[in-house]
Amino acid sequence: MAVEQGVKSARRGDEIIATGRRKTAVARVRLKAGGGEITVNGRELDAYFPAVKDRALVSGALEQLGKRGEVKVTITVDGGGPTGQAGACRLGIARALKVFDVELAEPLRQGGLLTRDGRMKERKKYGLRGARRGTQFSKR
């Protein structure tokens, strides 16, 4: 059974698949019962996200609910930069946890972990130098 278009999370056997997005980054999260290891694109969490704030963002949902040692998380992430990817991973993990244990849905919602951050880069408009900056005025 494949994950359908537009579906944010699904259960396939003993594995839960969820999608998280942030800016232009997309993270596909696979979560199942295990020893607490987090793998991102085939590498350990510490190796993939060297910045402490990004590591804290990714594992924040697991730490907040005390599920860090109970689940094994495998993430495939692409697009965007490190912060966007970390945010996408966080949303994917939160959505997967909601399917993993239905009773966690309310604490996840209260913590703001199930809310997708919709802020994107504004597109450049014609006649301007950027999204909003105009050209410099020249008197002569």
Task: Please describe what this structure looks like.
29% of the residues are buried. Helix content is 31%, strand content 24%. Strands 1-2-3-6-4-5 form a six-stranded mixed beta sheet. It has 140 residues and is α+β, with helices and mostly antiparallel strands. Helix 2 (52-65) packs parallel to helix 3. The mean pLDDT is 91. The chain is built from four helices and six strands. The radius of gyration is 18 Å and the shape is elongated. Strand 1 and strand 2 (15-22) form a beta hairpin. It has a single domain (9-110), classed as Ribosomal Protein S5, domain 2, CATH 3.30.230.10.
Q: Going across the biggest sheet, name each strand in turn.
A: 1-2-3-6-4-5
- Just name the CATH architecture: 2-Layer Sandwich
Number of domains: 1
Approximately what portion of the residues adopt beta-strand conformation?
A: 15-25%
Order of helices and strands: EEEEEHHEHH
Beginning-to-end CA distance, first to last residue: 67 Å
- Report the top-level CATH class: Alpha Beta
Gyration radius (Cα, Å) is 18 Å
